[in-house]
Amino acid sequence: MAKKQYAVIGMGRFGTSVAHTLSNLGFDVLAIDADEERIQEVSDWVTHAVATDSTDEEALKSLGLRNFDVVVVAIGEDIQASILTTLILKELGVAEIIVKAQSELHGKVLSKIGADKVVFPERDMGMRVAHHLISPNIMEYIELSKDYSIVEVKAPAFTVGRNLKQLDIRARYKCNVLAIKSGTEMNISPYPEETIKASDVLVIVGKNEDLADVELAFAEG
Ligand code: ATP
Predict the structure, then answer these.
(1) For the whole prediction, is pTM greater than 0.85?
(2) Could you give phi then psi for residue 176, rounded to 5 degrees?
(3) Is residue 60 within 8 Å of residue 89, measured between CB atoms?
(4) Half-sphere exposure of 139 toward its Cβ, with a 13 Å CA cutoff?
(5) Ligand 1 pocket: which of 42, 78, 102 to mutate (most atoms <8 Å of CB)?
(6) What is the largest CA-CA distance in the chain?
(7) Ligand 1 center to residue 27 CA distance, Å?
(8) What is the spatial distance between Cα 183 and Cα 162, in angstroms, rounded to a whole number?
(9) Which residue's CA is the nearest one to ligand 1's atom 14?
(10) Which residues of the chain have pLDDT under 70?
(11) Sheet holding 201-207, edge to edge
């Protein structure tokens, strides 16, 4: 299978981080920014770096963006530029367009005009930090939809040495343990008899309101 081709438009902190991670993973990345200096800064480590205004349809066409598998639009502040760029990419027929939104309203517009995925990095990170504050045992919080999420939670002391059947998370909290992480090992279909060890991490899926109960219960120890 051919390696996917990625383009990232907007080399702010978010766009740079996306491009950097993809490059480190060995993928080809085309970086685009209107600011010549930003392009200079990233040109050493991305495959191609081009200084151009992404609201210029002809420029995007001539870069062959149509042929990229995924284009990430990481323009935050200039909402108009972000929307216009997304619209042009959609018209060019880009297979997958992922756009960073500045606000809920910006996000709604992006979805309406055909962004395949809208991300809210500041909002999501804020949410994660807050969850971690409530319960330091919460390692990760991933929103699946408006109502459902996945949490990764360090096994508190009261769970250690007990198995999933005894903990009965399903009946007690209406949530499901998807997996148990033990160091680098990941048990992705744990049996009810699976005993929790100290330093295990439980991956739990559920409704947000039910997960909130799990978070509180697992906050101790
Ligand atoms: P971050 O929080 O990720 O640092 P941000 O959300 O504040 O970024 P901006 O700084 O507004 O976003 O934009 C990120 C980058 O996008 C900047 O480097 C900017 O030069 C670039 N950019 C803005 N408008 C355009 C455009 N029309 N064409 C190409 N690049 C653009």
Answers:
(1) no
(2) -115, 135
(3) yes
(4) 12
(5) 78
(6) 63
(7) 22
(8) 18
(9) 12
(10) 1, 221
(11) 138-143, 148-154, 201-207, 176-182, 185-187
